[in-house]
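Lab notes, practical 5.
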Amino acid sequence: MTQVATLRDPALEALGEEATLEEKHPQGTRYDSPDAPVAIQFFPYNRSDVWHCSRCGRHLLRYTEFGGYNVDPRVRALDPKRIID
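Output from the prediction step:
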């Protein structure tokens, strides 16, 4: 896999600020729903890097989920039809 882009806001990172943890679900989906929108300005996309898998040809979003005592690296397939901003 090869990293091809980032969705992180470099201006926020330069200021030492955190991207929002707010999610966007205008259709009432959940964060882990397969039909959830890809809202670039909202979690988890605003903390993601875009990777390309040379094996399957798909683009994947990679980010880290921080919760309680756990730190979990996560991967999600990117469906361009779901991008809403």
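Observations recorded by the TA: Residues 2-82 form one domain. The chain has a mean pLDDT of 90.
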